[in-house]
Amino acid sequence: MIKKWEVSPAPSEKNSARHKLLIKGEMKDIFLIVKKLGGLCSRPEKASGEFNFTIYLSKLEMETMTKLKEVMGELSAGAAAQSKAPDSGAGSGHADAPEAAPELFELPKKKIKIEPEPRPAVAKPPVAAARSTQAPAPRQEPAAAPPPRKASPAPEPRKPEITPPPAAEPKGPSKFGRADSGLAMPPAAGPASAAPSMNFMPSETARAKKEESDRAKAPKEDIKPASAPEPAPAPASKLKARWSMELPLIPTYSFQTLVAGSHNRFAHAAAMAVVENPGVIYNPLLVFGVPGTGKTHFVHSVSYGLSSSIGQNNIFVTDGIKLSKGVEMAINEGTIARLEEMFSKIKALIIDDIHLLMISPSNKRYISKWLNDFVAQNKQIMLTSVFPPKSLSGLEDAVGFQFTQGWMVDLKLPAASSYKLILSQLLQSMDVKLSEDELNNIFVQKSMPFGEVVKVLESMKKLEKMTVNASNSSSHSQLVEMLLGTGETDMGSTLTDDEYSKAKNWSQPGSSAWFKWGIFYPQSMEREARFVLYKMHERAAELGLRAEWTQVFMEEYNSDETYGIPFKIGNYAAERGVNGVIVLGPQPSSALGSQEAEFKHITFKILDSYLLKGAWIPAERIKSQAVYTKTLMDLI
């Protein structure tokens, strides 16, 4: 609520029209004021005395004063209504607002005067979950606030141990994601709720590189992580690496390569403010947007900036899966005290994909305490989420911490001109040669998310290295076509008797290759899965690839079960010690089929947390040559 405010001239050498707005109120009020006044406002600063916030206005005209009175009237009216009905349930509206508005946290359009009697509390401002994107490109200054000082990249990031934490399932369910999404967290540890032929119980995660065949296993009804030898005391930095809880930073993802424009100017300004003054105002900072909008770029940019300002050892960068499973491992091994000591010393906690946090009765105690202590002690927290704030309420209740209590900004889709600029810079940085027409036909017209663009181009460079020689000089556009199959005709997804017979009679050559993978397929699609394996080997031979692998398992999943399938896939694959996983996508008519994009994104995030490679084959494209070409590039 706004208790009082005043405006006074505050001219500077460069701007004689500047004014100072002094406010005594709460953080959520400051957010609405900045949103209403837009680019006229500087970044909010904390003040002392009878006012607790200061905002500088670049100019104060009649229109600005009208807007200012309007928003102050709204906030004052809401405060008065709240004081009259303290138990009415009214709160800070921005976390629970509807998602259909075109602008983030847009205020109501009705006029509210400041002079008359207070009106009832203002409606909660809406939240948008619009799309946006990011990719390396020259930095532009944000429009939301004057640019803070530029943060230089940090030293080379620490490389975590390749052994991930054990796949211990949480002991209590914790749903995440959209309110209408069924892709929820796995149930409590106990009898597996997966398809009959699969056992997804918690187990020790292994990597093919360091396969531990002598690991002791309990009965299937109660598989627990094997106890590891107690390590010698280690400093915090070594402790973090041993548990593989930290995300390795990407050197090219910095503020210098982040394009700031209308699609992300609020997020850019807030992120830069966090680097300059961690824990002061934007705490916690929640950045949200659909996959491929640049959240990870912001995570790495802020991490590098903070490592320069407060030191690399004072920040901890992780994601929802690594954090929750790492805490479970520490509890099981009896080393949680050292992890607590480490968290008590760091000054900034950055969690990517907070919506994938898995909360159990055992790890909640620690995660909830650390998050609340960080805010209470003015230590910086930064979070990212695929889903908008409204959809995180269930997870907030499970954790016992309000992610939405601080500053929330979304990432939007850039304009066509900005998209082309970012795309051109990306291709230049990767030394990819495509004409403007090819760019438009392949990427621009489809508005392909930049995360997908990067994967396609990386696969193209790998394909070029493996297949192009003196007698085969395919251009970059031809190689991209081999991966995407944009010129392929629709061959359908129903197998003929001849195709099924070939797949049925084919058997994998005996191999003890180091690289191992497995395949997951929807129930009732085993014959299609066998066809996929047959086509993988056939396509590798056609491309002349000397790639060998060992097929470890074929397992089915229930495509009509919308509860925790991505986690079951990740846990099972890690338990079997494979390097990579092929997922045959669900039938379009199934429950998961209607959410395939979301299902794919979450599954790949979980596989990545286990350091497993992943490849996705859409059920309706199992006859596409391009699909198998890209799958091979994704896995080998």
Summary, kept brief:
Helices cover 36% and strands 11% of the residues.
Labels describing this entry:
636 residues; alpha/beta; four-stranded antiparallel beta sheet; 18 helices; 13 strands
Structural class: alpha/beta
Characterize the overall form: globular
Q: Given the structure, what is the number of helices? A: 18
Sheet-strand content, in percent, reads 5-15%
How far from one another are the termini? 57 Å
Largest sheet: 5 strands, parallel
Adjacency order of strands in the biggest sheet? 6-7-8-5-9
Number of strands: 13
Low-confidence segments, given as residue ranges, are: 83-243
Rounded mean pLDDT is 74
Helical coverage, percent range: 25-40%
Write the layout of secondary structure elements.
Layout lengths: L3 E6 L9 E6 L2 H11 L7 E2 L6 E5 L4 H23 L151 H7 L22 H12 L8 E4 L6 H15 L5 E5 H14 L2 H10 L2 E5 L8 H16 L3 E6 L7 H7 L7 E4 L5 H14 L6 H9 L5 H18 L8 H9 L12 H9 L10 E7 L3 H18 L6 E8 L7 H11 L4 E5 L11 H14 L3 E5 L7 H11 L1
Parallel strand pairs: 5-8, 5-9, 6-7, 7-8, 10-11, 10-12, 12-13
Antiparallel strand pairs: 1-2, 2-4, 3-4
